[in-house]
C-alpha cells in the first residue's frame, strides 16, 4: 500500500474514485434526472471544453501569475471564428480563433512584463479592451455559427480536437525546453534566472501558449453553444473560473506526474457537481456557490503557507 501511495498513479486513482463517488451520490438522490449514460456523456462533453482552457492556464499558474482575461479571450475568439467561418468555412472556424487567441495571449504577456505589475490587474484591465473589441466586431449583436459548421460541437470531432489539445500540452510540458523552464521558474524564479533562463521571455511565451489553448477552447465553445453574445463590464469574467479550477486540480496532483489527466478528471468532477445540484432542484445560480467553494478548497490544497510570511 505504501508503494502504491508513492506511485505516479495514486493521485489519478483518487480523482477517479472522487468522480465515481459524486456520480453515485447524486444518482442515488435523483435516479430519474441524473447520471444516465446520455447525460454523463453530456457532462463529459462540457468538461472536455473547460479542460482545454485549464491546460492553457496551467503554463501560467505553475509559474505564479494568473490570466483573468481568458473569458474575454473566449468571447472575442469565438466572435472572430464565426465571422471568419462565413467566408472560409471550417478553415476560418479553426485558424481565425487560434490566431486571435494566441495574439491575445502574446499581448497579455508583453503588457504584463512591460508594466511589471500584478498579472491579475493587467489581465482584468485588458479584458475590458477585448470585450470592447468583441462588441465592435458584432455591433452588439449575437454571433451565430452556421448550422453546417457545427461538427466540433458533438462527438466524435469534439473528442478529436480536445484530445489533440491535451496531447500537445502534455508533449510541451514533458519533452520541450519550454516545459522544463516553466517548472524551473515556478519552482524558484531567482535560481532559474541565475542559471541563465530568460524569465521574461518564457513568461511571455507562457501567456502566448495559454492564448493558443484558449483559442482551441473557443472553437469548441462556439460549436457546442452555436452562438456567442459579446460581453461588457467584465461580464466575461464568469468564464474564467471553471477552467481555472481544472488548472488547480492539475497543480494539486502534479506531484504524481500527470497534471493534464488531473485537469481533465477535475473538470469532470466539477461538471458532475454542477449538474448534480441542478438535478436536486437547486437554482442554476448554485453553480456560482459551488464554483466559489470548490475554488477555495482547491487553492487551499495547492497553497503551502509559510510561517511568518505576510499574505498579500
UniProtKB/TrEMBL annotation:
User: What cellular-component terms does GO give this entry?
Assistant: plasma membrane
Q: In terms of one coarse class, where is the protein primarily found? A: membrane
Q: What is this protein called?
A: Monosaccharide ABC transporter membrane protein, CUT2 family
Membrane topology per record: Multi-pass membrane protein
- Which superkingdom? Bacteria
InterPro entries tied to this protein: ABC_transp_permease
Q: Where in the cell is it found?
A: Cell membrane
State the species of origin.
Butyrivibrio fibrisolvens
List the residue ranges forming a coiled coil, or say none.
Answer: none
Task: List UniProt keywords, sorted A-Z.
Answer: Cell inner membrane, Cell membrane, Membrane, Transmembrane, Transmembrane helix, Transport
In terms of PANTHER family, this protein maps to: ABC TRANSPORTER PERMEASE PROTEIN YPHD-RELATED, ABC TRANSPORTER PERMEASE PROTEIN YPHD-RELATED-RELATED
Amino acid at each position: 500500500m505504501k508503494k502504491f501511495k508513492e506511485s505516479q498513479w495514486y493521485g489519478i486513482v483518487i480523482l477517479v474514485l472522487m468522480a465515481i463517488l459524486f456520480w453515485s451520490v447524486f444518482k442515488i438522490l435523483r435516479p430519474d434526472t441524473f447520471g444516465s449514460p446520455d447525460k454523463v456523456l453530456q457532462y463529459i462533453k462540457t468538461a472536455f471544453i473547460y479542460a482545454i482552457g485549464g491546460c492553457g492556464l496551467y503554463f501560467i499558474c505553475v509559474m505564479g501569475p494568473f490570466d483573468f482575461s481568458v473569458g474575454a479571450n473566449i468571447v472575442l475568439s469565438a466572435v472572430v471564428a464565426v465571422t471568419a467561418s462565413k467566408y472560409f468555412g471550417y478553415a476560418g472556424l479553426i485558424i481565425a480563433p487560434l490566431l486571435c487567441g494566441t495574439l491575445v495571449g502574446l499581448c497579455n504577456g508583453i503588457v504584463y512584463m512591460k508594466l511589471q505589475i500584478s498579472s491579475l490587474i493587467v489581465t482584468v484591465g485588458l479584458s475590458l479592451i477585448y470585450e470592447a473589441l468583441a462588441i465592435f466586431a458584432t455591433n452588439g449583436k449575437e454571433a451565430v455559427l452556421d448550422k453546417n459548421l457545427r461538427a466540433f460541437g458533438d462527438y466524435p470531432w469534439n473528442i478529436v480536437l480536445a484530445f489533440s489539445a491535451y496531447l500537445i500540452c502534455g508533449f510541451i510540458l514533458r519533452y520541450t525546453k519550454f516545459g522544463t523552464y516553466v517548472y524551473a521558474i515556478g519552482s524558484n524564479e531567482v535560481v532559474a534566472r541565475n542559471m541563465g533562463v530568460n524569465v521574461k521571455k518564457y513568461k511571455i511565451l507562457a501567456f502566448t501558449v495559454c492564448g493558443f489553448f484558449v483559442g482551441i477552447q473557443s472553437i469548441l465553445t462556439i460549436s457546442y453553444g452555436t452562438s456567442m453574445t459579446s460581453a461588457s463590464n467584465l461580464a466575461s469574467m464568469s468564464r474564467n473560473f471553471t477552467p481555472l479550477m481544472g488548472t488547480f486540480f492539475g497543480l494539486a496532483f502534479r506531484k504524481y506526474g500527470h497534471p493534464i489527466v488531473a485537469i481533465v478528471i477535475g473538470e469532470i468532477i466539477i461538471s458532475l457537481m454542477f449538474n448534480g445540484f441542478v438535478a436536486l432542484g437547486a437554482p442554476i445560480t448554485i453553480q456560482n456557490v459551488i464554483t466559489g467553494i470548490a475554488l477555495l478548497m482547491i487553492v487551499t490544497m495547492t497553497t503551502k503557507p509559510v510561517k511568518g510570511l505576510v499574505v498579500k
